[in-house]
Amino acid sequence: MIAILKNGVTPAQTKHLVDWLKAMNIDVHVSEGKEVTILGLIGNTSRVDMELLRSLDIVETVKRVSEPYKQANRKFHPKDTIVQANSIRIGSGYFAMIAGPCSVESEEQIIEVARAVKEGGADILRGGAFKPRTSPYAFQGLKDEGVRLLLEAKKATGMPIITEIMTITALPLFEDVDIIQVGARNMQNFDLLKELGKTKKPILLKRGLANTIEELLMSAEYIMSEGNENIILCERGIRTFETATRNTLDLSAVPVLHELTHLPVVVDPSHATGHSRLVAPMAAAAAACGADGIMIEVHNNPACALCDGAQSITPSQFQSINHQVRKILEAVR
């Protein structure tokens, strides 16, 4: 349920109404815009008398929200959310290029790639320390050592870092990580999502390979229900019957999500396509359709990469893609 207040309502009047609603064990999310204030009512709203609420002098209208996701819903929060990692902002016109290797392999490798992608225009450094792999025999990442090396690359370049978490027990290792990534396989790991909701760190939440847009938003809701609203959604391709690409990149999800939610949306063309030659055109398409950022896998020697070399591009290719993406952003804006 949402209550839209009339223009000119004072903070004291708003607080009085919020306190009254909370006395009924209703959580209230207050969204204040330039011209309108919206109260999002969360919980068992059946105990709220809609007609009584609608009759109050300060209330313009009252509506029920049918969607199961509430805090992630644009109806609750019409203004775009801007997520900030250090000095980098994502959302509401702020665009971020996220680049780096699929996995951290050594100190020399991650620092070399970090410096190269920063020179090529990247805003945030990505790199996998914990690697969920389909095969138990594949490279699983350097784990805590990988996080340490990412922090060294952060010191060397000044770039914020993002890396994927696998389990709740690893959370203490992420204290100095700027953005915590939840991978596609963990999108519905609800215990993990709830723990991440208790932190205030930005969370990049990837859509599962067989999940709907609503299910992605419900996963975001798990995090937000625990108090963390710093969430970036990521479209990274879904599994279809098509075999020409690793996954099918659902770019229609970007404008759909922007209609449904206030959270920023980034696109990962590397995992979506699985082929380095397809990264550039899909990155360009992501920028054109309104993405708030792009996440790309970059390796200094893709042929020798320990993970996903086939979809990784070189630093020089990344620089070219970044230049193209920035020109597209200027055109569509």
Please provide a written account of the structure.
This protein has 333 residues and is of the alpha/beta class. The chain is 33% helix and 18% strand. It contains ten helices and 14 strands. An eight-stranded parallel beta barrel has the order 7-8-9-10-11-12-13-14, surrounded by five helices. Helix 3 packs parallel to helix 10. The relative contact order is 0.12.
Question: What are the main properties of this structure?
Answer:
333 residues; alpha/beta; 8-stranded parallel β-barrel; 4-stranded antiparallel sheet; 33% helix; 18% strand; elongated
Topology (elements, then pairings):
Layout: E1 2-5, H1 11-22, E2 27-32, E3 37-42, H2 50-55, E4 59-63, E5 83-85, E6 88-90, E7 96-100, H3 107-119, E8 124-126, H4 144-157, E9 161-165, E10 179-182, H5 190-197, E11 203-206, H6 213-224, E12 231-235, H7 253-260, E13 265-267, H8 269-273, H9 276-288, E14 293-297, H10 315-332
Parallel strand pairs: 7-8, 7-14, 8-9, 9-10, 10-11, 11-12, 12-13, 13-14
Antiparallel strand pairs: 1-3, 1-4, 2-3, 5-6
Helix pairs in contact: 3-4, 3-10, 5-6, 9-10
Assign a percent range to the helix content. Answer: 25-40%
Q: Report the mean per-residue pLDDT as an integer.
A: 94
Integer-rounded radius of gyration: 21 Å
Q: Strand content of the residues, in percent? A: 15-25%
Principal-axis shape = elongated
Number of distinct beta strands: 14
Which class do the helix and strand fractions yield? alpha/beta
Distance between the termini: 34 Å
What's the total helix number?
10
Strand order within the widest beta sheet: 7-8-9-10-11-12-13-14
Element pattern in H and E: EHEEHEEEEHEHEEHEHEHEHHEH
Assembly state (oligomeric): single chain
Low-confidence stretches: none
Give the biggest beta sheet: 8 strands, parallel, barrel
